[in-house]
């Protein structure tokens, strides 16, 4: 049976703004308070989806969330009509209103961890919504994420959904941003690689000093247990705390893997040799020939990797077996990174081509091509069981482009977030979107 890696991209929501909400994420901090352009952000994302579809990849779309999140503000004590809730939050606690307006659900690499059916004990595709417990504005995503994933992957014969882990720092879970799956073929059993930033209960693991480590070992282990992964099918590895302190808040800012290949920075991990040997050995039992490409720090410094998002790229397998790397425009703008990429594709290794995309609106909040997509490996039967409304087609692309142009603003500043009209605009847009994507009622305003 044929199998595919389907990329589900997060559609950028109408309140995309630069709130400066993510301590430890250099771009989010340095672009705080700039005016954003939600329309451009959503169109840039759609362009990438269309380009992948046009290249023959199966592409899906994941809906944004209801923002401002009035229910979250109510749970913090703001009362009255929806307009009064927003007005009171704006007057008394602007940072909470900004957090409740974040369009951060666009970075769907953080929506969930996904294990394909070939790896799991019960032969179903497993999803665990990420609790995103490190940042308040992201911790409010998972209830709607679960409903949206449930509406996309509804067939219980093929899909199993787990609620987010307990909402405490010990189980901080950032989803697929710290998870990579290696395999010979998407439909065969592979090895799932979980990268954590710290341990909550074992002080032998060093922790970063300056910025938070968002993912714990204990969260990664819990996800592996929930998904019914076997010991031979998992590798846990620690991210280098020194790179977290340089702005590598998720492992997908410093490494990306696909098929039998791990592409990573020399300084990405602790105990790199041991970890590579474990991956190699476990993949060999799956008949896979694991390889890695380590980018030396004297060619690309960690700072260049963080600024350019070289590793927050999409590594895609093409029909001829070669790989394509989808990178953001910022890679071309960085002479060292661009020179490295020229050498990489000329070297005759597995990565043969680089394609560049303008994702500046998302990049300015620390979200590159890889952040914007959730990978779901599916066989033909499973793909046929996915809600067809969320699979990208030329017609869906056209409809979504018209929808964005109709509903989105082209400038948003912090002061605009207090406008009660923005809430109405968003709800009108999302109500229409759930019909376009055939999701049913998934948003709080549709179900309460
Ligand atoms: O969680 N930025 C996101 C970026 C997530 C990127 N995802 C991956 N690397 N997979 C975050 O830090 C910034 C929002 C703001 O400041 O307005 C933000 O949430």
TrEMBL record:
The keyword Hydrolase applies. Pfam families: AstB. Substrate binds at residues 19-28, 110, 137-138, 214, 252, 365. Pathway: Amino-acid degradation; L-arginine degradation via AST pathway; L-glutamate and succinate from L-arginine: step 2/5. Keywords: Arginine metabolism, Hydrolase. It comes from the Bacteria. Catalyzes the hydrolysis of N(2)-succinylarginine into N(2)-succinylornithine, ammonia and CO(2). Belongs to the succinylarginine dihydrolase family. This is N-succinylarginine dihydrolase. It comes from Pseudomonas fragi. The gene is astB.
